[in-house]
Every structure is written in structure tokens, then in C-alpha cells.
Amino acid sequence: MTTNLETLPAPERKSTGAGKPNNRKPRVRESRGTLAFSRAQRGKSLMKHGILILAGALMIYPLLWMVVSSLRPNELIFREPGLWLNSLEMSNYTSGWSALTHPFGHYMLNSAIVVIGSILGNLVSCSMAAYAFARLQFTGKRLFFGIMLLTIMLPFHVVIVPQYILFSQIGWVNTFWPLLVPKLLATDAFFVFLMVQFIRGIPRELDEAARIDGAGHPRIFLRVILPLMVPALATTTIFTFIWTWNDFFGALIYLTDPDMFTVPVALRAFVDSQSATSWGSLFAMSIVSLLPVFLVFLFGQRFLIKGIATTGIK
Amino acid sequence: MSAISELSSITRRKGKVTAAEKKANRRDNKAAYIFLLPWLVGLVAITIGPMLMSLYLSFTDYNLLQPPEWTGLDNFTRMLSDARLHNSLRVTFTYVFVGVPLQLAVALLIALVLDKGLRGLPFYRSVFYLPSLLGGSVAVAILWKQIFGTTGLVNQVLAMFGIQGPGWISDPSTALGSIILLHVWTFGAPMIIFLAGLRQIPNMYYEAAKVDGASTLQQFWRITLPMLSPIIFFNLVLQIIGSFQSFTQAFIVSGGNGGPSDSTMFFTLYLYQKGFGQFDMGYASAMAWVLLLIIGVFTAINFIASKYWVFYDD
Predict the structure, then answer these.
(1) Residue A246 is nearest to which of B32, B64, B136, comparing CB atoms?
(2) Closest chain A residue to B190 measured between Cα atoms?
(3) Phi-psi region of A87 (alpha: psi -120 to 50; beta: other; left: phi over 0)
(4) pLDDT surpassing 90 at residue A11
(5) ipTM value greater than 0.85
(6) Closest Cα of chain B to A223: distance in Å?
(7) Would you state the pLDDT for residue A217?
(8) Which of A211, A273, B122, B314 is the most exposed place for a label (fewest CB within 10 A)?
């Protein structure tokens, strides 16, 4: 593959802005063309915008409709495909919030614990492994690196049965440990790879200078490399947040006690307990459950886009 | 760009170690293994150990209560006559073969429209990307269940035109289709990878083609597609691996039972039912290995076929 795509944007490349070519300049030039040319161009771009707005509206229509429906009385949800609201019905939120054994906040808190633990685990363990792979020479490096890359593609299902047996024998079912310990042990190899690529873009002269000054590897890692890889750490944080917040399979298997439910399993329990009778409150809690992800999306977009564009995580 | 290309380059590289490297080796070895410790423990305890265990279990009958009983190839011969399993394979293959190409085609199409000096690109990109971020969540699966329900949004819209729509998710002939549509709807992540790839194609190719009088379509076939082929390949491999493992959407939309009449019984859902519903851990392990084998074969076919259609610039 083309080399400029292979690595994450290295810090020095980013500052020059060379990572994003050919977007702005042609646009300016086009608009300065002859009158006929620019008119044709404008028509074409207007059509493009039309198509995109239509497609975009279609894309987010279901989501908007869910937001609106969560604010409607139940009997209207099944008759109103539109997005207009006659009155704000907050009762869906209040009834949904307390529809299960615990108030919904309890499940949000459980999710928050798992998410924060997972983020910390991934940041520490993946960055350590990445430093070794990117900067150190050791026996079996190529073999281990190859294995690490392979584990990215390994289906979760091949290990889930024995993992479950293992964790249930330690007595960890209905605790958060089965969800947290794998993160502490860098099993999300995608992030190791992402960080390796990022560290490779940091000039080696920096750590060699630190080494000449007498710094050992722990110091080089903590004082030189880590501060420079903040963008990669941010990407890891954001994706770990979203994936863990949305994780259903793991939580479904390990968390069977309602006390320990995270948001996705709680929502599923909600579906089962209410069936189709109260879509309004079900939607309300769905919105509540999507809100953290949406906020992370809003504030972390830059890192999200970069993370996907360069490594393919989503 | 990716773990995928990295992996193929590792297998090609020849192992030559210089004297200087050997010296560095000894110095770095200890530090490297300390940095790698969490990852190594995880590799052994969370990945390779469980893999070997699940390989062993796949030749046994094990229900968590009694010790595993060796049954040889029994689980695998059982699969040969398990009609539900054959059906789950058919469902999963349909999902992958229809969903993945459709999703990638839409992703590429929108990426092409979004490319090259379009005003408001970040806005459009966000709108198209958002569903792919939320699509894996239980909340969106719940939304989908309503949208395609008998009185759902789709049928409300159809009713405005006087059409009586079917109960999409309660009808075996359309249930899988609505889940495929959910998959297509989440095209945002591959779209962003395509956008990044399009940025890397040098503008001079297009300028040269224009001078030669090539039409837009010719430019697409002769320049864009070949130049983008590594990215298409990357997306294809990633999406196929991911799609074979889909679970949440089918689980929620079908209420956990793969219905109606097993039309949304994905392979992973059946595996979950066998392992964690009926505690038939031996059979579930065998199924997991079949899944690994299928994914492995498809990835291998992809890599072999890629030699004929993926064009590398370097």
C-alpha cells in the first residue's frame, strides 16, 4: 500500500498541514474561472448539495424521529411519521427512568465504571506494548508483532467459551472484572497497532538524545514518547469509550444480575419487560443511552475521523 | 495503511540481523519484555490459552456441570445434520454477500460526491458518519425494530400513499432484509476510509487525463478505481471479517431467538444459544472454530484474489 497512507500522521507532518492536500486550493481556483465556466460549476455543485442534503436527511431521519417520538404520548407514536411536536411530553422520560428494578442512572453508573476502567486499561497496557514494538529490539519481535496483528482479526467467539468458563470458575461472573481484565492486558490489539504506527512517526533523534542524557526506557517512554502521542491516546480513549459503552455481547454473557447491568443489557431487559406497550419510554431511555456516545462524537470528531481514516477502526 | 498490509509485508521480509542490532538486542531485551508484560500475559491467558482450550472443548461434550467428555469428531458430524445450523450459515452468508458489497458501494459513492473541494464537507461527513457510530448499539436496534414493525415508521409513511406494508420484521421474507439495511445505513466508517484514500490520489493524474480528453466515467474506471483498489481491498477484508461476527442487531430485532422462523438466526446468535442458552459448550466451541475457519478462508481468498485486482503504486 502507498506509504503515505501506512502511518498515522506524524506530529511534524501534521504541523505543516501537508496531510490534507488538494481540498481548498482547487475550490478557490474554480470560483475564479470564466463566467460560463463558473455558472456550470455552480449548477453542478448546487445539484451535489441537493443530493447530499436529501441523502443526509434520509440518513438521520430515523434518529430524529426517535428523539421526537420520545417526546410524544404513546398513542401518537404509531400514527405520526412526521417530526413536528404539538406538546412536549416528558412523562416518557420519567416513567422510563424508573421502569426497571433500579433507576436508569444506576445502569449508567455501571456503564461508566466499565468504560472508565476499560479506557485506563487500554491506555496503559496498549501504549506500553506499542513502545516495545516501535522502539525496542528483542528476540521474537517479528513473531510477536505478527501474532499481535493476527489477533486483531481473530473472532471473539473462538475464545469466549473458555474465557467464560475461566471467569466463572474464578467466581467473576456478575462482576466487572471479565470486561475489564482483558483491557488491562492489551487484548484490543487494534490500539497497540495504532500506537505503534504513531510512535514510528515520532523522530528517533528525540529518544536517542534522551538516552545520551542518561535516561532509561521507562523515562524515555513516560517523558518523551507519551507526551508526544497524545493524539493517538485520544483516539484510543474515544473509541474505547464508544465501543465499551455500546458493548452488548460481553455484558449479556457476564452480567446476569440486574444490579450489575450496564446500559445495553438494561435496555434489552426493558424491551423484554414492556414489549410493545410503551415505545415512548423505551425510546426515551434509548436516547438517554445514546447521549454519551453522541457527546463524545461531538467533541471528539477530529480524533474519530483521523482514527478511522488512518487505521480503519470505527 | 493497515494491519492487513503490514502483515503481508512481515511474511515477505527476510530475516537479516546485523552485529549492531544484536548488541542492541541484548540491551533492549529485558526492557522490551517488561513493557510487553501485560500484552504477553493477555496473549497467553486471554487469547492463546482459551483458543487451545476451545479447540479441545470442540471435541468434547461439556455442559459446565460435569467434566468435559471426549467425543472425538461428534460435534462436527452433528453439524452436518443440523438443519438450524445450515440455515444460520445461509442467513449469515446472505448478510455478508449482500450487505457488505451494498454498504461499500454506497460508501464509495458518497465519498466520491464528497471529494474535491466541496463546501461544508465536515458537516456532511458528520451526518453520514453518525449512524455508523450508533448503529451497533442496542438503542438503534430497538429503533429499527419499531421502524420496521407492523405499525412502524416505514408503514406509516407507506400508508400516506395508501399502501399497506407488510410486517417487515415479523415476515420471514423481509426480516433479514431490514437488518441488512441497518448494516448498509452504517456506511460512514468505510466512507471516511475511502475519503482518505481519494485524497491520496495525485491531482495531476486527473489533469493529464482531462488533457487527453477522458470523460468523468473513464477517469473513474482508469484512475480512481485502480488507485483506490488497496483501500477497497482493506475495507472489504475488514467488513467481511466484521460482518461474519454480527450479533447485537439480530439479537435485539428478533428478541433473541433469531425469528421469525429462524430467518434472522445469524451463526453467532445460534452459537450464543447453544453455548449460553443450552450450555452446550462443546458444540459452541466447535461452531466457533468453524466460524474462524470460514473467516480465515474468506480472508485468504481475498488476499489471493487481490493479486489480480489490487494495484499498488509503489
Answers:
(1) B136
(2) A312
(3) beta
(4) no
(5) yes
(6) 15
(7) 93
(8) B314
